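Researcher: I've got a protein sequence and the SMILES for coenzyme A. Could you write out the 3D structure of the bound complex as structure tokens? I'd like something to compare against our soaking experiments later this week.
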Amino acid sequence: MTNGNSFSIRMAQPKDARAILDIYAPYVRDTAITLTSKMPRVDEVRKKMHIVKKTFPYLVCTVENKVVGFAYADKDRPHEACCWNAELSIYLDPNFHGRGMAKALYTALFQILKAQGFCNLYAVITLPNEASVALHKSFGFKELAVHEGVGYKLGEWQDVLWMLLRIDGANPETHGPPTPCKKLRDNEVDTALMMATALMVGVQ
Ligand SMILES: CC(C)(COP(=O)(O)OP(=O)(O)OC[C@H]1O[C@@H](n2cnc3c(N)ncnc32)[C@H](O)[C@@H]1OP(=O)(O)O)[C@@H](O)C(=O)NCCC(=O)NCCS
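Model: Sure. Here is the predicted complex with coenzyme A in place.
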């Protein structure tokens, strides 16, 4: 889905793995925004995408066909009782921060997750991260708890804030577990991508 200023949101494809890693790598190397310390290889990014896409949406946003950001959901905990939960990831190229692209990506992601039947969306944010906390608050996430010193990276113990948004996609009694993303009807996904892309019309 493309808009007037050549911004678009689409499902990630294996060929995007290199661009996704190029965006992610500086956050791994230079920050504790992700608690991953070991740089993934491009084939590992591709493999992770393949596994995620069996169940969850994995989206990229592009400007003039170049991938400038990505967002996906992933398993929260392994228990069957937690199958209505999803943990979120979102990363943008710093040259494209502050233009509403994260909002557009999340708008599409959440609409798809809701259509699938997910109920609880978790953001797990290494502190401080003003931009991420603001992004999640703008969607109505509430702060649950800070887990102090859960990871050691860049010479420091890192604190992590858990935030939750309940979207009540499905009644577990009547709907059962969420529908895998790839089993949604194409038009449900296309509508979500189109509506979110439209949010960026007129934004440079
Ligand atoms: C967090 C991140 C995804 C936000 O992306 P973005 O495209 O710049 O965000 P948007 O422009 O869509 O803004 C979304 C909301 O957050 C707010 N926001 C964004 N950056 C902000 C900042 N630096 N300080 C305060 N608020 C900020 C915006 O004002 C907007 O809120 P509003 O709608 O109430 O005005 C981006 O900064 C990023 O990639 N950061 C590095 C990776 C990261 O932290 N990922 C999250 C890990 S938990």
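Model: The CA atoms of residues 69 and 92 lie 4 Å apart. The chain has one domain: 7-198.
Researcher: Great, I'll pass this along to the crystallography team.
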